[in-house]
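Researcher: Next sequence.
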Amino acid sequence: MIALTNCRAVTITDGLIEKATILIEGGLIKAVGQDVELPEDARVINLKGKYVTPGFIDAHCHFSAMGEPRARGGGDDGNEVSSPVTAHIRIVDALDPFGIAIPLVRTAGFTTCYTMPGSANIIGGTGIAFKLKDGKCIDDIIIPGTEMMKMALGENPKGVYGQRKQMPITRMGNAAVLRETLFNAKEYAMQKEEAEKEGKPFKKDFKLEPLVPVVKGEMRCRIHCHRADDIMTAIRVSEEFGLDYVLEHCTEGFKIADILAQKKVKCVVGPMRMLPYKMEVWNCTIENPAMLEKAGCEISLTADAETATRWLPEEVGVAMAYGLSEEMAFKALTINPAKVLGLENRIGSIEAGKDADLAIFDGHPFSNFTRCRATMIDGEFYHNEL
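Model: Next structure:
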């Protein structure tokens, strides 16, 4: 049993508790508060006023799959650019538990991340959430049941396939490929269900089968969209087919923030300091998160990166300088991405019964003068400079 005492506990759900004690047992948080009774056998760690937050969560990463460090000539295992629709692709088959980003990112206070395929394809396959623990195989770190289907609109897919003179070449083509595939998946799901009811043989389609839970609303979709019109296309198609969806990047979300708020769309926003390396991100602004918050949107923040994910807390601090509230800043790296991943009952806040995933900082967690001094995952220190 471990007792973290004399800390500033950023609980997320119950505010900031000064001079708090957090009791940890069996990989779970047993208690948190100012009047927690210490068991005689507890290992007491006096944090001397340091901040303790829930372990940070980045709900949109690509590390341990995108081939970092990259060798000249390739090495990217995150984009299967052989077809604009590869729903049967699984990132878990490329995820490297020994990836160099895992130990680096957890030294910044991250305990859970979600890696997904890239955005080269209209439908790119499923991603999965994992704990940033040491593991000998992928089964040691992944969180089963967190698979979600990656989709993409905008310049990436039309750029990849357009240069081959293959559909999609335009934004119209992007939407058409997505609609046609979802239509076919819906027809396939109905035929399969009917055959099963009647006890008739049914030949499964390996490429459509993964989309059955998608069109039934049982598997969440993560849709890459930067420009405001692409965001609206993502919403339009999702509503047509009754998809459970989250919008990724939302770079021009500030232009339609009122619509996003009205529809209660979950938005994973970032990267926040992109250079204008392609046209659809020319309007990237660090003020986007604050404007979305002001409109009433529920946002998570992402670095959309590999090892560079460790600098995300610093970027969140910059977003605070441009209007993002401290409350939303903490939520955007904890409970909100936990909700995106469907893990809010396990992680994302400091509460009794939740996983003991914690990060300890020697100053305000979003200050560039601060260092993460320890990171705990499931009650075990994986990074400890206390």
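Model: The chain has a mean pLDDT of 96. DSSP finds ten helices and 16 strands in the chain.
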